[in-house]
Design goal:
This protein is mostly helical and 249 residues long. The chain folds into two domains: 2-83; 85-246, Intergrase catalytic core (hpI Integrase, Chain A, Orthogonal Bundle). The chain is 53% helix and 4% strand. It is built from twelve helices and three strands, in the order αααααααβββααααα. The chain has helices at residues 2-15, 26-36, 42-61, 75-80, 89-97, 106-119, 123-128, 158-167, 189-203, 213-225, 230-237, 242-246, and strands at residues 134-135, 140-143, 152-155. The protein has a three-stranded antiparallel sheet with strand order 1-2-3. The protein is globular, with a radius of gyration of 18 Å.
């Protein structure tokens, strides 16, 4: 089981563009725990943290890394912290409205975070989107091979569609990544998280433990609080078991 945990973590680092273990920081580990929180049980998450702690302790012992990224990060602290943080409806509005579309990358960020919030996307799912996965006329987005390896066709809100239309040039090729970095390459999860925290600071919604994944949690909670059907939210999130969705109630 330990080897499968490590394989999953190393695959995550590869997707993040991190090819040197010395570059791994606490924020990368928390981001990974956020990503897998929907498919791992509480017990499995605890086991994962233990495996990662052993890995980095071993690397530290052999002087392969200079900074120990697992400091004060335990199974319990993660259960009580970043993974379950979410924004209130007022905070979500304040965060999204703080994104200045007239600034460099502002329009891309507004389209990106409106989509993540309205369709309850994982950062990795947003990063993997191609232009051709977006169907603005029907206000749908196709998520290919999500966490459970299944495709999902998700709704997009009118306001998210509006900013996506502003963001995309008319002649954009379908095979191009939907969200590009400032280097004109695919925007990776690390970049999405960095921009999230940039605009979070601008919005003055400052609370420890918030991450891009908080927008996904927020969407689920806000839908359920307004009477959405639990099964609908389950399908939106891509949960195999409704028990994974019930935590939001």
């Amino acid at each position: 089981m330990s080897s499968s945990y490590l394989r999953g973590f190393l695959a995550f680092l590869e997707k993040e563009g991190i090819d040197d273990i010395r570059e791994v920081g606490r924020e990368n580990i928390v981001s990974y725990l956020d990503e897998v929180s929907d498919i791992y049980s509480q017990k499995s998450l605890g086991s994962l943290v233990v495996v990662l702690r052993r890995l980095f302790t071993l690397l530290m012992r052999h002087s392969k890394i200079l900074i120990y990224p697992m400091e004060n990060l335990s199974p319990r602290s993660h259960d009580d912290g970043p993974r379950k943080e979410y924004l209130s409806i007022e905070e979500a509005d304040r965060f999204l409205n703080s994104i200045d579309i007239l600034k460099k990358l502002g329009l891309r960020d507004r389209a990106l975070f409106e989509l993540i919030y309205s369709s309850a996307l994982r950062a990795g799912e947003a990063s993997n989107l191609l232009v051709g996965d977006l169907h603005l006329k029907s206000r749908r987005v196709l998520i290919r091979g999500g966490k459970n390896g299944e495709d999902r066709l998700l709704p997009i809100t009118a306001i998210a569609a509006h900013y996506l239309e502003l963001y995309l040039p008319l002649d954009t090729q379908d095979s191009r990544p939907l969200f590009l970095s400032c280097y004109n390459s695919r925007l990776l999860r690390g970049g999405i998280n960095s921009r999230f925290h940039y605009w979070l600071t601008k919005s003055k919604v400052e609370r420890e433990g918030l991450s891009v994944h908080s927008l996904r949690h927020s969407c689920a909670r806000h839908l359920l609080s307004r009477g959405a059907n639990l099964r609908y939210v389950q399908e939106l999130l891509g949960h195999r078991s409704v028990s994974s969705t019930e935590i939001y109630t």
